[in-house]
Structures are given as structure tokens and as C-alpha cells.
User: Fold this.
Amino acid sequence: MYLAPLNYDRYFKKVFSDLKIAKRFLEDFLDIEIQEIELLPVKKAITDQARFVEFDFRCKIDDNYVIIDMQQWYKADVVKRFYLYNSLNTSLQLENLSTKFIELPEQKVKEVKDYSTLTPVITLIWFVQETFNFTDDYISYTLTPENISAFMRDIKLWGNPEIEKILQEREKLLAILDNNTKNLRWFQENKLIYVFQKNVVKNPNFSKYKDWFEFADKTLNKLNDKFAYNKFENDAIFKEIINRLKTEIESDEEIRYINDYDEYMQKVFRYEDAIRNEGIAEGTSKGRKEAEDELKPMIEAERQQKEQAELQALQEKQKLIQTVVFLKSLGIDNKIISQKTGLLIDEIEKL
Assistant:
């Protein structure tokens, strides 16, 4: 059975826009139980000068803001880019940050933002091909005191045959980690998690999240037999994903999109090979130039497709706004409008 590839951006976004699916994935991967989950806008304008930033998926779960981004192939900027996204998801909370009042002399009062209500952010980057030279399923980064790194790299300390010295230093660092004065441990609650599909699939483990990556990996294969998804069809969530991905390939336009994407991917891989070969054969640039020339039409086509999609999305949004304004003019409750349009109540109130 052939399904639309879950790892392709278009289908990943469509599948994870279902909050039941997103909730289950996050519960399985983070090994938590989520009481509430709220879908958040994925496109945000940052400054007058900067372009908008678009996340693949963004939500709020209980006491965390979460981003999930799918990375199909190698990109050189993923470390700094997703650190920025992680920071940005903290900054975006300024929009809805509560306020508090500070009493000043002469019975004056000043209203200020209450930063104590900021919520930790988890950014999860799902890599399909890249492993960062790790063999682990994933690597998680948090902000921890610099003393920890210094401790691990202290050759003189670790070369000391007296284990008591090492244990004493460890106790000092544990005290630093456990110090929650002014909520210092909040730093450690923010996470950047790099997940490697190739490693998860090949590593022998029984983690709840393994099924998600095995399933995604199977959808990349057009030659699966009819029994390929048997183990997933007894699970209501995966059955829903299968139905969604099966429906996505029922139109000629979707088949063209997948074929074009596959061709584009092959050219990207050839381009990367050319870069590597160029590094081996120093002074030759032919391979790189040929790869760049070959990629140009596909890159231009993708740019045009993206612009067309953005224009269509803008037109649809304008129609939706007109519909909301009309319904509000009839005195219809915002909750009912939200149910009919799919917009968040906060978004409706702003119109």
C-alpha cells in the first residue's frame, strides 16, 4: 500500500494539524500525559524589516510552548536557526503576557509586564536523513551552568586517583543545578531536541515513540506490500493518519507534487555529493557548478509554487475575515463562529 510520505512538509503539516494526532505524538515522545493542547499560528511577523517566520507546527501543551519542525535533508544552518526559533517562541509570549501593578510614591501606580508567567519552550527538530554523527535516537540541549561543562572537561580533576575529590566537586555542582532561587531552574526546562529518524529506526529499543519514526520511514517507500501497515491499523490514531495520507494521493496534482519533490530530493543529494567530492578534489568546481545549474529550475519552480500558495492563503484568509465580520454583524457568539471557521477565539476577537 502506498501512502503520501509523512516526512514531506505538506503532509506533515496536514497530519499534525489534527490536535489528537499531535497530542499523541508529543505524549509518546516526551513520555508525559497532556491535559490540554492548543494549536497556535505557525506564521508570525517579527519586525517591520524582517520577513515572517513560519513554523511547521506550533502549539501550547499544559505548561510548555512547543515547536515541531521536519527536516528532510541536510541544511548547514539548523543549529543557529532553531536556537533562534526556540528563543522566538519565548518572545512571542509577549503578545499575551499578563501585567502587574507596582505601587510608586505619591500614590502612583505603574503597569508592567509580568515576566514570571513566561512558559518554557520545547523545540523538537525531526531529521529524516541527518544524524549529526550521533548514534543516539536524539540529543537534547538545555541551558545549564557553565560550571558543568568545565567539570566534565577538567582533565586534572578526572586524572586524580582520589575519587572523593571528584565526588566533592560533583556535590558542589548539584547544589548549583538545584538552586531554584528566583526560579533559576526555568532555564533547564527550555529544550532544543534534535531527533534522528535513521537512528530511531535502526536502534534496538522499545520506546513508545519508535512507531512514529518507523511509520514515517515506511511512507517513504513507494513499493510497500499490502501488509506494510498492519501493525499500525489496530491503533485508532495511526489508522486516522493512514486514512489521511491515503486520501492525499487521490488527485493528480498531489501525485505530481510527490514526484516533483522526489526528483528535487535526488538533485539535492547529488548536489551534496558534488560538494563533498569537490572537497576531496581540491581546486575543482565543475561538480558543484553542474549541480547548481541542475538545481536552479527546481528551486525557481518551488519558489513560484510557494508564492502562489501564499497568495492563495492570503485570499482565503480575506474571505474568512469577511465571513467572520458578517457573522459578528448578525450577533452570533464568538464560540460558534470559532466552530464554524476553525479560527481561535482570540483571533476572532481581534477582527
Q: What stands out?
A: Strands lie at 37-39, 43-44, 53-54, 57-61, 64-71, 99-104, 108-113, 121-127, 138-142, 191-196. The chain has a mean pLDDT of 82. The chain has 14 helices and ten strands. Residues 286-329 form the longest helix (44 residues).
